[in-house]
């Protein structure tokens, strides 16, 4: 009767609800979808309690004389291994007790507990047998959890052992992380006990790795250490290993003073042939290298060619020239401080080679406030962040241009001690630490745009002693030490920088917004998108195939000249300009020598593209430098 009474009242209430809803626009909902999120986890916990009390268990695992009761359906649902064991025609399908060979009791008990609870404790004592058991029993997530635990323990001392372990266990994630650490911290890895036990193929794979973060000089020293560990059986491998050293990025002095004279290298005719080929290639200033030498001139390892912008010096509104140096990382868009320039210099020139920034000449202030031309050279090591005195130039000069090619540094023109416009050219050999005079420019010019490419130095425009634009291109053939001129009405730039990408030289502004590209192959000029402002005394350089323009001075809408802290980027693929913000320092007339620098770069490969510095003298001295550098090899700059 009570049941009938309740049913009648429920039907009555339901009819009333329907009648009440009939006048509403909303659809009638008679279904409530309820989901108990805790049910599945609670169910497993209850099943685990039943398992421990041996209630409804239908299989017992035996290991080391101990028993672990389980439910077959739980195991089948948790692992393909147990699904195959209990749902196929194996003998274990009907067995009440199963012996799992090779799995210790404590490991098996931990895994069963993990299956029922989803949690497990991984320690250094348990991780290896746990990982082996997880692999055998096909618990993929547990296997990866063990891998994650081991990845957290990685260090330069154990990464080689971890690599071997990951290969045995077929653990790809651990292998990748251990390998990544090994190539990133290779200079520390070579000091580990496992390094000298590497096989020849293993060592070759590291030396060939494009991610290897180590200088090529150390690559050579590393292969020597490996050979000397077992000289009797390994001496014959010198040629195979030596071919993996990227000689293009070895400092020439180290190459010819140490590598070439090493007894092991001299004992191999193939190695000595390589050394002689490199020597001929460097000293002949050749255009191309043979196919056998292509690997030696390979591109720098990816970890060793991170591009950055370095801002040096600068002055604004008649203030004193700054000694500051800052580094801009294009990838992180962060600025960091480098060591200060030793001396306040006015209108020097800059280049960068072999991980060293060269500050060449300029004016120095004497007692009484007078400026004196200087032939001094200061160098900043981008590895140690320390300044040193370099070999002085032959003659004092300022407002000159600088360029690099192979292992040479060129300085061109400028003003002499008596203020006369000079056409003299000097060349510095970084291998022999020696300056020498070269063939002078046909026409002395001030403020030209200068780049080097494919054995030639191009000098675009500039102005003569009467401050009139010089409409010509002067080209210097480095191998022949000869100049020739090309008259052209298109060239009229003064105080404009130049940068090279592939076979095109871009001339940026110069009292104008105009930007043109000179195609070296076709000997033609192309019009490019104009800059946003009429600029002069600015700087330009190439980073990742884009031209960055910094600082300088610009002509505003009132036709007056103002200092600029602009930071702009030109993309030749889209022929468009983008503002990158402003410089972090109050320096204008920014100097950005436009050339790619590899921190480990020794001589540039003949025929390769290199856009040397575009340093132009200004009435307001400032220096801004763009370089292609390996930040990992640089010290952590102090703020």
What secondary-structure arrangement, pairings included, does this model have?
Layout (H helix, E strand, L loop, with lengths): L1 H20 L17 H14 L6 E5 L2 E5 L1 H7 L1 H7 L10 E3 L5 H13 L9 H10 L3 H13 L6 H11 L2 H13 L1 H4 L10 H9 L7 H14 L1 H4 L3 H5 L9 H8 L3 H5 L1 H15 L23 E6 L12 E5 L4 E4 L11 E5 L2 E10 L5 E11 L4 E4 L11 E5 L2 E5 L12 E5 L4 E5 L10 E5 L2 E5 L11 E6 L4 E6 L10 E4 L2 E5 L6 E5 L4 E4 L6 E3 L2 E5 L2 E5 L2 E3 L5 E3 L2 E6 L4 E7 L40 E6 L11
Parallel strand pairs: 1-3
Antiparallel strand pairs: 1-2, 4-5, 4-30, 5-6, 7-8, 8-9, 9-10, 11-12, 12-13, 13-14, 15-16, 16-17, 17-18, 19-20, 20-21, 21-22, 23-26, 24-25, 25-28, 26-27, 28-29
Structure notes:
This protein has 639 residues and is α+β, with helices and mostly antiparallel strands. It folds into three domains: 39-153, Potassium Channel Kv1.1, Chain A (2-Layer Sandwich); 202-297, Serine Threonine Protein Phosphatase 5, Tetratricopeptide repeat (Alpha Horseshoe); 305-633, 6 Propeller (Neuraminidase), CATH 2.120.10. Helices cover 27% and strands 24% of the residues. The chain is built from 17 helices and 30 strands. The strands form eight sheets. Strands 6-5-4-30 form a four-stranded antiparallel sheet, with no helix packed on it. The chain has a four-stranded antiparallel sheet with strand order 7-8-9-10, with no helix packed on it. The chain has a four-stranded antiparallel sheet with strand order 11-12-13-14, with no helix packed on it. Helix 8 runs antiparallel to helix 9. The chain is elongated. The relative contact order is 0.08. InterPro entries: BACK, Beta-prop_ATRN-MKLN-like, BTB-kelch_protein, BTB/POZ_dom, Kelch-typ_b-propeller, Kelch_1, SKP1/BTB/POZ_sf.
